[in-house]
């Protein structure tokens, strides 16, 4: 759980701080009629640095597991304006000419650095490539292919599960190259301003790093396909669009159509998580097909993946109901077990 600081607007308005970290993974919500304590793997309060979130969420272990051939996913979840994009990417104002200060970089850039350091130190032959998609109004669009974003079909196969047809994968070898891909894709992503957030993400974005490693055991002249098994891991970062109440954001027209499709897909995700949290014997069919988002996350949620969920919340009394709903959601997600 990450609790962001109160914003200037909230402080000026006289909002009360209703969320307090109790240490040791516990968070307490106290307001009129509400008094609840929740337990999680870790809680980062307003004073926690980006570095502390990276180290304390065990993100470094996730990168190492992806190199070892596992399918790893990190997703940021929470109300609009609660700090999801900041946690994953750092400040939004950065560009290629004006990079953010190193202390403010998010989980993504820190993971890229860690991945490239590991790949150098292992001396093994790692092939790295990236793909970047957004789901906007239930359409899957490629954020890296040139030209205006066009909708791509989502297919299913027995071997691959759900996959996106014709998505572009770009190979990279340096930190600069992957950070540029991230910035380039993020600038093409749909965002709008509304009452709760000047840069509200209007789409769910999925950046996937594909890591293929070949083991070096034999001299080159003995190399045959069978002599060097290759491991393929993925590290997927999911920046979910924020859940929002249309009456709070003052959205209308196109913005409210977007909000409805965002809320529908988050509801489908919540439904899958609730069913996955039930004990194995009581599980019924998990409805991954209910939305494009749950199809693309099927492997991460209930399959063979290893998933880190960072739930971002606001401490303000004005956001109380959304904060409680995020905490309940995260408590359910915590009970889901996968078989990596």
Describe this structure in words.
It is found in: Cytoplasm, Cytoskeleton. With 340 residues, the protein is an alpha+beta fold. It has one domain: Kinesin motor domain (Kinesin, 3-Layer(aba) Sandwich). It has ten helices and 16 strands. The strands form four sheets. Strands 1, 5, 6, 7, 8, 11, 14, 15 and 16 form a nine-stranded mixed sheet that branches. A three-stranded antiparallel sheet has the order 2-3-4, with helices on one face. Helix 3 crosses helix 5 and helix 8 packs parallel to helix 9. It is globular. 39% of the residues are buried. About 2% of the residues have low confidence.
Kindly summarize this structure in a few lines.
Its main location: cytoplasm. This protein is an alpha+beta fold. The protein has helices at 8-13, 50-56, 59-67, 84-89, 107-122, 175-188, 246-249, 254-276, 292-302, 320-334; strands at residues 2-3, 19-23, 26-31, 34-39, 71-78, 125-136, 139-142, 151-152, 154-157, 161-164, 170-171, 191-194, 197-201, 204-214, 230-239, 306-313.
SSE topology:
Blueprint: E1 2-3, H1 8-13, E2 19-23, E3 26-31, E4 34-39, H2 50-56, H3 59-67, E5 71-78, H4 84-89, H5 107-122, E6 125-136, E7 139-142, E8 151-152, E9 154-157, E10 161-164, E11 170-171, H6 175-188, E12 191-194, E13 197-201, E14 204-214, E15 230-239, H7 246-249, H8 254-276, H9 292-302, E16 306-313, H10 320-334
Parallel strand pairs: 1-16, 5-15, 5-16
Antiparallel strand pairs: 2-3, 3-4, 6-7, 6-11, 6-14, 7-8, 9-10, 12-13, 14-15
Helix pairs in contact: 3-5, 8-9
């Amino acid at each position: 759980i990450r609790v962001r600081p109160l914003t200037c607007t909230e402080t000026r308005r006289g909002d009360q701080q209703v969320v307090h970290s109790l240490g040791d993974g516990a968070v307490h919500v106290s307001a009129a009629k509400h008094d609840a304590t929740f337990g999680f793997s870790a809680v980062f309060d307003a004073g926690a640095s980006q570095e502390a979130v990276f180290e304390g969420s065990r993100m470094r272990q996730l990168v190492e597991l992806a190199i070892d051939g596992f399918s790893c996913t990190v997703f940021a979840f929470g109300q609009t304006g609660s700090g999801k994009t900041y946690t994953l990417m750092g400040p939004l104002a950065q560009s290629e000419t004006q990079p953010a200060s190193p202390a403010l970089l998010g989980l993504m850039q820190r993971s890229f650095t860690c991945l490239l350091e590991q790949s150098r130190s292992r001396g093994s032959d790692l092939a790295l490539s990236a793909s970047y998609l957004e789901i906007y109004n239930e359409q899957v669009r490629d954020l890296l292919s040139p030209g205006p974003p066009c909708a791509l079909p989502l297919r299913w196969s027995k071997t691959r599960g759900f996959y996106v047809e014709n998505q572009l994968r770009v190979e990279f070898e340096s930190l600069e190259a992957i950070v540029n891909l991230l910035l380039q894709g993020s600038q093409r992503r749909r965002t709008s301003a509304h009452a709760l957030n000047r840069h509200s993400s209007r789409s769910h974005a999925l950046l996937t790093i594909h890591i293929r490693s070949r083991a070096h055991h034999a001299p080159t002249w003995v190399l045959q396909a069978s002599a060097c098994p290759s491991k393929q891991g993925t590290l997927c970062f999911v920046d979910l669009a924020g859940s929002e109440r249309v009456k709070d954001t003052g959205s209308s027209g196109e913005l409210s159509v977007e909000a409805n499709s965002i809320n529908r897909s988050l509801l489908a995700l919540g439904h899958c998580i609730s069913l996955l949290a039930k004990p194995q014997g009581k599980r019924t069919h998990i409805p991954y097909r209910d939305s494009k988002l749950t199809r693309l996350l099927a492997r991460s949620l209930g399959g063979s993946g290893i998933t880190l969920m960072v739930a971002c919340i606001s401490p303000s009394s004005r956001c109380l109901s959304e904060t409680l709903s995020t905490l309940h959601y995260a408590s359910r997600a915590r009970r889901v077990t996968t078989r990596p």
